[in-house]
Amino acid sequence: MFRNLAVFILTLALLAGCSNTADEIGVVARVNGAPIYLSQLEFQHDQFQVDAVGGYVPSVENLKNEYGEILAELIVQELVVQELEKRDIGVSDHEMLKAEEEVRADYPEGAFDQMLVEEYIDLKAWRLQLRNHLAMRKFFYQVLRPQIKIDYREAEQYYRDRISDFYLPESLRILVVRGPSREIVGKAVERFLAERDHLDLTTAFGEVETRDVMIREERLSATWKNALTGVAPGQASGVLTDRFGFEALVLLERSPAKVLEPAQAYPLVENALVERKLHDAFDAWLDTAMARARISLSSHLLSSEEFPQLAPLPMSDPEDSDGAEPEPLMQDLQDEDLSDDVSGADESEGDESGEDEMGSEDEFNGQESINDAENG
């Protein structure tokens, strides 16, 4: 999705070598005047390195590439933030507070703040990352998504071209009944077959556990496959012995292999087409936004060789990682001047609409186009 950004940043790097207009220390880039700070790069790089294999010591050149990739993502995120603000739909304080509360709710009381301390995570930097993430989501779903419409003919063609993707192999729905003794499991199965209420079994038999699972027949273990041989839906296997105790299998349902009908496959087709069109719409918007932007950046963050390919994950949280950066490079960044602003194309051009002309509103095997479905 950032396929053109690497080329754009590389061009800026070449131009940046032509001058050295000093700027405030700690600012590694400016996007239409808005600063991107070294602290943001350091925070993102720490997150980026969490999954790195222990003992890995990156070269200075690799660090430049890594910081260049992160800088490119931060530039894109800042462009998105500015676009939302221009449309008066920027991420609000209320949205930030709600998102942070949702994250904190996943931790026991006080554990989130303790985690920040133990992981050396700066709360201000974390909140800035959260804001950028929320901005990207809002841009995709409130700005780009309304432009995307799916014509029924596109959906039909996608379904026909990828019919094998909608094949469902034979599957079984099984109730697994487990307990500490063969006798208890046997009685629990008898009660279930009589009453068909597996939730009641844990009440009637305190030591019994039940689990309703759906599994492809090809993925059955040899033990389960043998136990279910000759068992019809509504019947149970004998009581089996395993290392955890005793268990029996009740075959609830056997679903034959089938290909989803067009109407059943439509939600999957719709999601795939929407995702593809969102990517295309974002690429088109980004091309225009970069051409009009005024961007200054530190040449220390850019490799002297070909700029690495950027990962197409604007909607995702940055990959977590860890790893310390050599002090000499950090000192270079802190002392580095910024190049002159590099202007793109004529800023007076209007915004790109990005809307596609849609086809007819005919139904796709009983399903309306996504536009009609949403308006409904």
From TrEMBL:
Acidic residues bias (residue ranges): 333-365
Record's signal peptide: 1-22
GO MF annotation list: isomerase activity
Entry annotated with the keyword Isomerase: yes
Pfam families (alphabetical): SurA_N_3 (PF13624)
Sequence segments annotated as region (Disordered): 310-376
Keyword tags: Isomerase, Signal
InterPro entries for the chain: OMP_Chaperone_SurA, Trigger_fact/SurA_dom_sf
Name of the protein in question: Peptidyl-prolyl cis-trans isomerase
Species name: Pseudodesulfovibrio alkaliphilus
